[in-house]
Structures are given as structure tokens and as C-alpha cells.
From TrEMBL:
Species assigned in the record: Chelativorans intermedius
Lineage: Bacteria, Pseudomonadati, Pseudomonadota, Alphaproteobacteria, Hyphomicrobiales
Domain Methyltransferase residues, every copy: 50-150
GO aspect biological process, one term: methylation
The protein's name in its UniProt record: Class I SAM-dependent methyltransferase
Keywords: Methyltransferase, Transferase
GO molecular function: methyltransferase activity
SUPFAM superfamilies from the UniProt entry: S-adenosyl-L-methionine-dependent methyltransferases
Keyword Methyltransferase: yes
UniProt-listed PANTHER family: METHYLTRANSFERASE (PTHR43591)
Annotated EC: 2.1.1.-
Amino acid sequence: MAVTDSPAHARLMDGIYRHQRHIYDITRKFYLLGRDRLIDGLAVPEGGTVLELGCGTGRNLALAARRYPDAGFFGLDISRAMLETAHKRMHRERLGGRVRLAEADAAAFDATTIFGRRDFDRVFLSYALSMIPPWQAAIASALDHTAPGGALHIVDFGRQERLPGWFRAALRRWLAAFHVAPRDSLREVLESECEKRGARLSFDSPFRGYAIHAVITLPDSPR
């Protein structure tokens, strides 16, 4: 399994988003489909905890914090530039007391060291796996930090298998310019993780395969 060169990847992400972060949320709403559906489906238990890996500008965390006012929220990102924008958002929306942010690699982090807690009731990745080189490691790390009986939620680009070939090719060329790569073997990797952990997988490919929405629910007691 590949290992991230974290400093190099952090520099790459900062380079991409140093200026884009200021218009990120305005532009991405047109093609990062399914993010709000993921937030609505988190079904966070009262007093529960939620961790987002690759939290970017904090857009999703802010929406989720308002959607689930009794929960505690945590987010990490490898890009210092994006976290700067996320911190400003939390301050502006008066969520700083409920949302904690940290700079870390989603594929290799220790939540106990960063946040003072080992696991979370809900963990989610929203269009992050397609930008994380060792994305399989990020999935394993996310599940390692999901509490027994909790769930990992993922939304990202899909295979676009039910869309015209020309559209799929053009989309992938455009995404590649931003170092984004749909993970075509994602379902197989998730199924393998579920088998190892005795977990359940729900997997959907909405918008004619443009996106994927997956939920892994862990058993109440670890194997």
C-alpha cells in the first residue's frame, strides 16, 4: 500500500488551493454532487461525535454542525491554506466552540494525539479520496477511528459508467489537471474492508454513476 510523502503532498495542496480556496465553495457546488445528501444521512446520535477527513474550507463541517446541534465536530486537512479558510469560517459562523480543526494527513494520523480521543461515532470523506494518493490507507485509517457501532460515510466521483463516453473522458482529463483521480476500484476496496471487520456496506452510484455514496457500518463490538 502506498505511503504519502506528507510534506510534498501538503505543498502540492497548498499550491493548488492557495488562491482557489477563496472561490472554492462557489465553484464546487456545481459538480461536487451528493455532499448535502451525505450530511443529511449521517444520523448523528445525540451528543455524538463527527470527524471529517480532508475538511477543506470547512463547508461540510459548518453545515453538519448546524444540522446536528448536539454533536461535537472535528476536522483535519493536510493543507494549511485550506485550514486557514476553515478557521475563518468557524469564527464567522460562531462554531469555533463546537468544531475543532487540525493539520494532519488523512492516511496517517493519531486522533488521540491530535484531538484527545480515539474514535468517533461518524467519520466522513467528501470528495477527498480522489485527491489522496494512498487512498486505501485513508479508508483503513478512517475505519480505525470509527467507534464500534459507528459508521464511515463517503461521497466522491464515481466511474461515470452510465454517462456518455465523451463526457467521461473530458471530465477525467479536466479532473486530472487538479490532481483528482476517481477511484474506480473503490467498491472492491470497501467490500474487502467490510469482510475483514465484519461490517456492512451500503453502496450507491447516483447521477448515472457520476458520483458514489457509500456507508460502512461497523459492528457494535470489534472482531
